[in-house]
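Note to self: keep these together.
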Amino acid sequence: MSRNNQESTSSPFLNDYKRNFVFKRFLQTFIGGPILKFNSGIDVPAYIYIFQIGLFILPFIIGGISILIHDLTNAGKYGGPNSNYSLIYFSLAGGGIYFLIVFTLKIITISISNKTNNSNENFKGSKGPRLLSDEQNFEFTKLFSKKTLQFLVANSNEIFVDLSSKSKVKLKYLFLTLLRTLFDSIFAGYIMFCSIYFESIIYLQNFYALGPSIILFILHWIVLSMSLYSLCFRDPPEPSIYQPFSNAYIPINVIFYLKIFFSCLPVTWILGLLPPIDAFFLWLAEQSYIHLYGGTATATNLRLLFQLFISVIVSMTHFIPNDIAIVVIFSAFGYILSSIDLLFLNEWLICEIKIKKSKIAPVIETKNSIGEQKIKRKYPFNWKDCLYHLIMLILTITISVVIFTVFNAEFFSYEDPFLVETIMLYISIGIFIICKIFGDLQSVFLFFGLIRNPFYPKNSLSLNLSTKNPRTINQNKIFFRILKYIRLILLKIISPLVLCAVISIDCHLNKIYNDKIFGYWRTLVVLRAYRWIWQSSYYCLMEMCATHIFLFAISYNSVTESMTKVYLIRYFLTGCLAASFIRDRLSQMLNKLYAYILITITAWTIKKQRRSLALIFLVLNIVLILPTFIFVILPSCILSAPLLPLFTFPIFLFSFPRPKKFWPQKKNFFSKSIEINDVSSTSNTNKKPSSAEGFFYSQLVPDLVNSFKQHIRSGSIGQSIQADTFFLSRFQDRIIWIQVLESSNSFYVINIKGLELQETSCHTREAQYIDDLFELNFENSLGANSNSQSNKKILILNKKPFNCMSSKDILLLNAYSDARNSLVGILDYPENLEFLCQIYPKILHYFLVLFLFEKNKNFDPKLNEELNHLPPSVRNSKASLLSAKEKEPSFINSPEVKSIFEDTNELTIDSAISKKNIFLSKKKNDNIDSFDDWSDSDSDMEKNSKNNKNLKNSKLSTPSSKKKENTDYDPFDFDLNEILGNSSAGKKSATKKVEVKKEEKYLKNERLSPKNFKKSLEFQLPMSILSLPSEWVTFMSENLNSSQSLNSEELKKSLGTKKWLEKILGLNPRIKLDESEKLLNDYETNIWTSHYKFLLKCLQTLNLNEKTVNLNYNSEAINNFYRGDLPWSPANEKLMKNFKDLHSILIKSFRYAIKMTIDHATLSPISDDDEFFETLDSYEKEWFIGCENDEEFGRQINEKKPFLFSLQRDSLKKTLNSRNLSLQNIRSPMAKLNSEIVKSIWASTNLELLYMTNDDEERYSIQAHDYILRNLTIQSSDPPLGYPVYNSENVYISIANPFFE
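Structure:
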């Protein structure tokens, strides 16, 4: 893609390197595979050319010698029985010799390749690597060597058997290898046998003269040599590529078309007119299904083959010798096949059976349920649709049978059925005209997009809608709603039933059953007619009315009136089938002519598209328009193949025929890639978007589908939308590409793609053209000089009709509006950074409290009361045991604890706690040892000495004794028991001494049995629900220098009251406590101090000091912190590695603080705690604040969070930018694209990228083109050719019931 503003005149079709490459590939394709032109710089010996030429002419040598010997030995005897037998013998000999040569070479090459590959460790474990067979990957050293043989028999190198794999797998691949080799060799020998037998000059002289016989003989053996070389030795590059990464069909393609095209095979092959074998059969099946059985193009190969099979089975009722039975079956299945998706019904039944067997409640899979083994209900039951289908099916069968049998009554004459049929056809003409008018009045333009609809709302992009949740722009007008429902009833109910009666009368007048083989055609056209009236009611009305008028016109001047009736009766349904085919091909022809003219003219009129040869091709295409029409456009229409403008320049060919969905199946050939979901759910596809931008489109899908469904029902985007239709919609920086893959009476299958948001120059130019066009068509249709008088004009012409888009209507979507703002002067302003330092600890405390509530949600206050009756040190010891048990599940099984329980004697509290202290001292030292590399703690020897000292002293150490021993005590240092909330701050030493005495008395008097002690270990909760995790406190105390602790009087003032905790609890009603008042009192008297000290330590480790924040936090530091990287320090490295919960809380708090700082500076100041909590509450309920590359960001988009915020940094300008997404009702204009222009560009891209490998980002064919949207169309191609940021699975839309939305 163009990344700059260079004009297209400087963009080459092919650069110099690609020109040589394409010429070499073209030559290799033309001659069938041999490489006669190598890259420069490669030393290729002469024997390589000789060997390739020898293998190429080998069939001619063997066949020529066999034919020559036969003709010489049987001169003058040709045609006799001995001569025929002799020819068979020589043919068998020639075929057998060629078979042996090919089979031997292939087996030897496979053996050599597998030995080489298995000896190479890089290939071990691979199932089938492809050895690169191009000349640059080979070094030719000897005349007879492994490399030479591998180069000559290149297609055998792809067959690889992994000898290091399991025996069963090895045998499987070995068997498949031998089977394929044997098949190719036998097939090559058989072709040689047939060629020798049928293509001798003497044999050809039975049909042609000597001169033509010699020419045909030479041409045949040239084509045969090309075909056999590609089959046996090397696959030639194929211009017509359907599967991007598969060349398995290339040899079969050549052999398949060998007898069909014979001498013209090289020309048709090199021009890419012959489809690959898989594309050919899919195209043939699709065309047969559409035009013979009244079907539609399908979204997947499985659906096509399944529905074609059902249609063929139904048509076998031709052999039932009863016309009434045939009418019942055809009328029933005509409705069922066109309105009820049988494959969908089968999948629905299977899903229901699985749900019942699994006994799991059906749920819609969300992000939280990924990985869970739950069955997702993809096919919701809709009783309204089922009831509607049942009623319509009964009506169809009833009308068909009644009309067919009623005219058998004696009181009806022969003339009456014909008269009734004629009347109904004229009624159908009236219905068709009404539906056409009512549908066109819903759209913005009338008469082929030339005149603006005077009834369509003016300034529709800014029009205020009175309806709360409108589905269309015209929904608030009763007039348009009446037109919509009248059209639906006429088109979906009345017209099919009227036409059903017409077909039944025709079946009565011209009987169905016929025991002759040609009678099957009559059965086929009747079955097609019964289905087509439902499959496409609008076009069926048009075709039947046109057929009736045409037959009446050509038979009007007949000799007798009875002859006119014979024409109308006998050929009516056959004429309808022919009319359908002609209408389809005529529509393609008009679109192709339009594409031909548009591409030709704009190549000269647009200066940026103009090249030196543009004027020459403009003149040639105008002068030679008739030959081009006859030899290019007309054949492509007949074959339903896309035009191919080479490099999207006005050099026109036509591509190979393919299915209407154009691109191959996304998965394997028979995969059910269609994803049928309830459009009311939050996600219409299981496919995860490939980028953050893809989530914006993924969120749009449900609303887009619902809105698109309403426009289909109203007819504003087309009277009858067929498969192979494209739509484009745009709003803000988003472009939505919609492709209709399958259409029916009651459902559609579409594919939705979202194009890139980060616009390049080409993308921007075409997107701007779309914006201008939509602005002109929907908002300011009179142009820039419109005034009040001109607004009263009724007849307004389309100002820009000459392009590939036809504006239709407006989609109403609930989507995100994107606003990006620069933060220069906000986050680099000192006062705002100081405000950030002030609010950050408050936000951190808010999330800290929430985390503690979530972690300790099973906290039981009654258990806490029992512990409170114990003396402090015993209570602390038990609490430590409980926290240790909670942290380490294997605590109860440790040797120290087991030794306690193994003692059969009763244990005193003194001895039990002494043993517990031994264990905890070891546990603590183990934890400290894990941080030795980052702290200045004592050495291991000193630790061991301290541990030994603790083991000798069985007395408990109290906090007061610790303070006495520590002479360097800092007032901001941590006391573990104090921070855990187990002792009050500010206790006097006298009180502590009293507690120690009480404790000693308690230890002497209390006795604890092993059973009671073990029961005490079952406590799961800390001393308080708001107690900080001990590992966090230990980490902060050991890794941070207490002398550098911060102090904040404002923070202390806010946190020191229970009102602060009340506000936090008030913002989270999901937090419920039975004794909240006691918790608030405990918080105010005891717990808040530990939280306050912990917050100060967090500010210290993050360098969030009001005095130095300007120095520590520039744009890069803020951006890194916002995205999850804490300011670097040894302590923070440990924190991010070992304390994931704390790390996530710190990051989330900083993101909220950044958002609050921006709002404080730009919207309204936050001056007190009430405003702080009000702002925080709005963030929690309505906002998601995070990064675009987070998975949570995409999930919140799909869940339709009202607002999203993210921070970005411009690395060039070194500035910060904010991105605010707000969920709004968006109006997205939609246009219908010319399908032939789209497929022409896709065909050119397919040839250019896959065959020519021309992926230059500055090539001519990808440059912006306003009128055909070339760059956007290439983007919308299926990967790997295109690069849409979002590509949905196939989406199923049900529109069965016209009475219910």
